[in-house]
Design goal:
single chain; 586 residues; alpha/beta; Rossmann fold; 5 domains; seven-stranded parallel beta sheet; 22 helices; 43% helix; disordered C terminus
Amino acid sequence: MKFIELNLSKELQRAIQDCGYHEATYIQSACIPVVLSGGDIIGQSQTGTGKTAAFGIPIVEGLEITSHKRPQALIVTPTRELALQVMEEIRKFAKYKEGIRTVCLYGGTPIQKQIQDLKKGVDIVVGCPGRILDHINRHTLKMDHCSKLVLDEADEMLNMGFREDIELIIKTLPEERQTILFSATMPAPILRITQEYQKNPVHIKTPVTQMTAAKIEQVVYECKQGDKRSVLIQLIELQRPKLAMIFCNTKKMVDDLTSDLVAKGYPAAAIHGDMKQEARANVMERFKSHKITMLVATDVAARGIDVDNMDVVYNFDFPQETEYYVHRIGRTGRAGKEGLAITLLTPRQRNLVRELERITKSTIEKKPLPTASKIREIRVEQIKADIATMLNEGVSKEIEALIEEFNAQGFGDRELVLALANNMFASSLLEVIDTPRREPDSLKVHSKDKATIEINVGHRHKISPAHIVSAIAEATGLSGKDIGKINIDEKFTTVDVPKEYIQEILKQLKDITIKGYSIQVNQKTGDSRSKDDSRPSRSRRDDSKPSRSRRDDSKSGRSNRDYSDKKKPARDDKRKTERKRTKKED
């Protein structure tokens, strides 16, 4: 459906044309008429399907231009980045609607500036739950005239712990209102919100075929966990993206990977939830202006990042939720352009590709890592392109002077070209990376000898043996049956593993996560337990902790051995006395 077929004013039609929109997406054509009619909506839609316009256009169209300037619409988002993006889109749609004011409220910045903006009057408020609630409690934001509520990325707001804030905000709104909810997924908590706060909502779900752009090429490369960073560097060197996003599952991995990329000379920056708002805003500004070309992000922090002309999306870590995959790859191939999404998989993750193909209704191609001959071939073509670019841009006076200097020393032009090309070839970061050779998915263990490793997660992290086995097997290729005893303590876990692979195991486990926790792994040495010691793990944990009396004695300077040596005769004397007393009584 074309936008001109929708019942919109001339001002809106003009603003939409300025945005370059002609054909409405499914979610837009389905939502706009319902919002204009005042109905509640449950919109199930992924990133890249145009949902901001789906609620933003009809909200702007339905506003009443009043003199009192009190909020008529409230749009709640999980992150500052998404709030700013939504505000920018709303302002574009309201471009030719005189008198409409929009204010964005979010944390991490001085609240006084926002209070001043609210005092000037506002028609549409966009913001994050915490800061919105803060303004409501301060009475700087009054919602008694608000007739429209939009909960954008509702599932992510619940995941971030905003449920209570959202409910408190809703209680301040008039009962007679229109409630529009958008969520990529529909878990039970979302359904409870819809049942409690919406009236006969229309459920609009984007067809799976539209969730991912048809022009996105999806590729997976299989590699060992420890080779992922090298594989990523190789792919970046081969593809030379002008603008790319790299997704990791943890904040620590985002920071570590960004440091590696910057150290190798790539213009990269990180963005995640632990960063201050000012730092995140600065990173986004640099990324949008192409001052940095690689953005390394977590899934939550990336919500609301809307950048056109994204060449490649790299999934450094396989997404923890399959729905996140669609969000990630939807950031490339926008506006009818072609895109590329690359996922790095460990051997034990290869079966997960079928699930991705099922939810995206598309084929994901598995490609082998480039061979040495292929790398040389690609590198030669890159050097040809680089030299052609330099020739087209012209040679500086300094370079001309340098060439004349070498000519004067007896070096010909051909020799200079060969030296330049050879230097360009040698400076490449490309290297051959072996494809995982193990088939099937597990290493073959020849020896029964075991070594013990210690991992810094335990009961307090809600870790179970299944989590440990899965993580080790996935990272190393070991079979579950080759992993021995697992003893889970409060803060750490010990695991018996094949001794012949101990160094490989320590290397492969270095950068993995278990239940989202970045881990540290060390080989446990000096363990006095015998191989036949089969006491249950609870006993071992109890034995590993000194009793209260022993701890008290250690403070007074007595060792455990001294304590036991002195107490043992006392116990023996007590038993003898008891036996004598028993005989006497008999």
